[in-house]
Amino acid sequence: MISTAPYETGNGLVALARQHGHRISQTQLAHWHRAGLLPRPRQLSLKTGRGTCSCYPDGTGEQLIVLCSLRTTERRLTHLAWRLWLAGYPVALPIIRAHLAQAAQRIAQWMAWLKQAIQTQDTHGEILDLLEHAAQGDLPFPPLRRIRKRIGREHFPTFLRMLIDLATETEDGTAQRSDAYERLIDLRILARGLGLEKRFVQKDDDLEYYLVQIVIPQLRWVLAQLQAVDCEQMLEHATDFDLLQTRDELCSWMMRWGRARQYQDHLSADYPRWQIDIQQIFSSLSTADQALILVGWLALRAP
Predict the structure, then answer these.
(1) Integer angstrom CA distances of residue 52 from 5, 38, 44, 57, 80
(2) Which of 92, 116, 184, 211 sits at a 20 to 30 Å CA gap from 190?
(3) Tens-binned pLDDT, residue by residue, of the chain (303 aa)
């Protein structure tokens, strides 16, 4: 059982870890707290008056057990720090900021390409060629690979084109299609890519109302906000509290989404349903991609 004392000794933590099947040493314990994965201990005098002992803050034992469990699948210290931090444990924030800084650079590169695509007249079809390549080639971002698998490679360029249309604030994200039938097909591709249930997507009137009147305006706002915010500069000015609050908001939102999915079967048949498990998708992402999502969430919180 994890100690509830006001502090936990190094010897006690080593013994606790062994009780849970993790054989560690005092040297290993010191290495982890110096690396920022565990709280730093205080050196307190022994009651005998001879010598001192390392005393860690209350709760370190729980964090240590989680750390040892995570090490069964991950050995990189900075990645372990990220996973501990996401779970709500205190780690050295410079490690977290380093992950976020790399993610902010990726977003800045994507936004620079998007702005160039928006401002450039695609007279030679370069953007179209790029979208076609994305449909067939490797995609570095797993959620995009999931979308491509869900809607098929043949429809993936259409999905990407619609996102670009939304980013340029065209009328409704359908590339200004004049043909009502083709416009409806485009809406279905967008809806399936975003994760709406296939059965709901086939209902023309419901899809038209829910997607065009509710989802697309929100998606347009997200894309506009990401373009408006300089993520690298934003991160430089973000306080430690901002990062903690953003993390907690994102985790809370994913938890509420997961709980809402449990009640979908109790909803009426004409209610829109989503076939994506956001918590599972996020958990399956690499540290770099999780950091990317968190920076994006921080940008959406920006005034």
Answers:
(1) 18, 20, 5, 16, 30
(2) 116
(3) 344 457 888 889 999 999 999 999 999 999 999 999 999 988 766 665 566 677 899 999 999 999 999 999 999 999 999 999 999 999 999 999 999 999 999 999 888 877 776 666 555 566 667 777 777 888 888 999 999 999 999 999 999 888 888 887 754 444 455 578 888 999 999 999 999 988 888 888 888 889 999 999 999 999 999 989 999 999 999 999 999 999 999 999 999 988 887 777 777 777 888 888 999 999 999 999 999 999 999 999 988
- C-alpha 162/C-alpha 165 separation (Å) is 5
Whether residue 102 is found in the same domain as residue 82: no
In the chain, how many domains are there?
A: 2
- CB atoms under 10 Å from CB of 216, counted, come to 20
Q: Which of 91, 109, 144 is the last residue of a domain?
A: 91
Query: What is the C-alpha separation between 270 and 200, in angstroms, rounded?
Result: 7
Q: Is residue 254 part of a domain?
A: yes
